[in-house]
User: Fold these one by one.
Assistant:
Number 1:
Amino acid sequence: MISYFLVLPLSQQDIQRFTSSPNRWISLVNKPLYLSLFKIKASYYLGKQLLDFPLAFEVWEKIVLNTKSLLIHTFHCSATDNLLVLPTTKYELVTINDILLERLPI
């Protein structure tokens, strides 16, 4: 089954910002009113799962504007031009703590 996401690929700078002050972001990530953190293959993305796809234009426009607003004003991501629709059959919902654990040296 294919799942669709409207996501922003996270840069190393974005990941560093989230992991350097995790307590600031933990209450916002993976909450219904905000955005979710996804790992697809080896890359991290911040965005929304699109439960229905394709969408009516008016619904699509509202979701894109809302997602861009959250990325800019809540999550302080400046490069929202890279927003994309990502279809995938395999993804993982992750937390900031998961990223921190993954980045620890072994």
Number 2:
Amino acid sequence: MDEATGMQGHDGTDAKPDTATDARTGPATGAAPGDGGGQGLRGSAFLPRQENLELPLPPVFTDPAREREHRKQRLAGACRVFGRLGFSEGVAGHITVRDPEYPDMFWVNPFGMSFRHVRVSDLILVDHEGQVRHGRRPVNRAGFVIHSAIHAARPDVVAACHAHALHGKAFSSLGRLLDPITQDACALYEQHTVHRDGAGAVVVEEEAGRQLAAGLGPHRAVIHQNHGIFTVGESVDEAAWWFISMERSAQAQLLAEAAGTPHLIDPEAARHTRDQTGFPLAGWFSFQPLWDEIVRTEPDLFE
């Protein structure tokens, strides 16, 4: 029992990877739950044409302790993936996930620890005032200010991601949206925005965090000018995938514009592709190969 929160079984010392009882599969032709709009897989590029096939679906929990452990495992795994992809920049970068039982608190990677080393037991629990309620490491002040504001402004957001990845921060200096120049870039077409207030300034004041959250609005991502990319989702998996996708799309656009003038995908086609690949379940599903890879190669993350 944690004296600060009164929660049991959340310290990660007995963490185990998700088992088959946590996972779900569903008919490939069925509507997907938790997609934010009832769209599901029906009519999407993720739908197999053959009948009687099943796709993995996000697990559903009735026990908050098990859901908490699942979310923490995915958070630690996302940190490992970010580290493997080279998104680390010193002590910068933070991924948060809302606690399922205490929604005004969130779990986050500890300040000053490499993404590559984060384990479930390393994660810290922070309340809405920035106090560490579980764990012995500090929280990144900027991470708390921004993520707490996002979680407060967006009850639908379960997880949020930010890192000082090279191409995202380079692209952010342009102060513009990503253009629909590839299919991948279309996933967040008209689903991300640019926030210019406080460009380049470290966000340590709570009002600045609230302004950034307001700049995000109802979207899935925001490019903070001269800073970098922030993404959100209904799961750690979804938020992490949108960040990875945006970072790679920023890289692709920088490369294309260095070589010439890219041809834009027309708005109708861009929206069609977004509807095919840019809904929450698609983000969750796209992250699963990376999750499987990190679980097989770095099982110590569950410690």
